[in-house]
Amino acid sequence: MDRPHIEALEVGQEVFEAAKVVKRDDVKAYADASGDQNPLHQDDEFARSVGFPGIIAHGMFSMAHVAKSVKDWAGNPSALRSLAVQFRAVVYMDETLVAKGKVAALDPASGDVTLDVWAEVERDGQRVLTIKNARAVVNLA
């Protein structure tokens, strides 16, 4: 993917969509890398005992997918200046987590692009936002 240029962007333009099927091995790898070994993310029996149908992905796992999606769109890992998210729903194994972003503001003088970003899954025929009210600032200078 070519790096985006601020001159080619418009406020309201959707700029990326990135899907990832959430797998148990990925959640385990995230748990090991982050040190978050909470049994909600490791033990189906424990997760069922607190009301879930099985283990759930870490909220930060979902945020990492959003961050990677922004980075991939920007074409440069150092372009991502900030990311703030609000976690809204859990993600279950084998769901497809989709990260999306659209342009909220442009500052051609600095090269900063502010993106509204979110993550969603489809559950029971409904779109469920797992991350919303989120913003990323990317510098394309």
Can you describe this structure?
The chain has 141 residues and is an alpha+beta fold. It has a single domain (12-139), classed as Thiol Ester Dehydrase, Chain A. 23% of the residues lie in helices and 38% in strands. The protein is built from 3 helices and 5 strands, in the order E-H-H-H-E-E-E-E. A 5-stranded antiparallel sheet has the order 1-3-4-5-2, with helices on one face. Strand 3 (96-107) and strand 4 (112-123) form a beta hairpin. The longest helix is centred in the middle third of the chain and has 16 residues, at 59-74. It starts with 13 loop residues before the first strand and ends with a strand. 24% of the residues are buried.
Report Rg. 16 Å
Query: Can you name the CATH architecture?
Result: Roll
Distance between the termini: 17 Å
The CATH class assignment is: Alpha Beta
How many domains? Answer: 1
Portion in helices: 10-25%
- Which regions contain 5 or more consecutive residues with pLDDT less than 50? none
Strand count, sense and barrel status of the largest sheet are: 5 strands, antiparallel
> How would you write the strand order of the largest sheet?
1-3-4-5-2
Mean pLDDT score: 96
The count of β-strands is 5
Secondary structure blueprint with pairings:
Layout: E1 14-21, H1 24-34, H2 44-49, H3 59-74, E2 80-87, E3 96-107, E4 112-123, E5 126-139
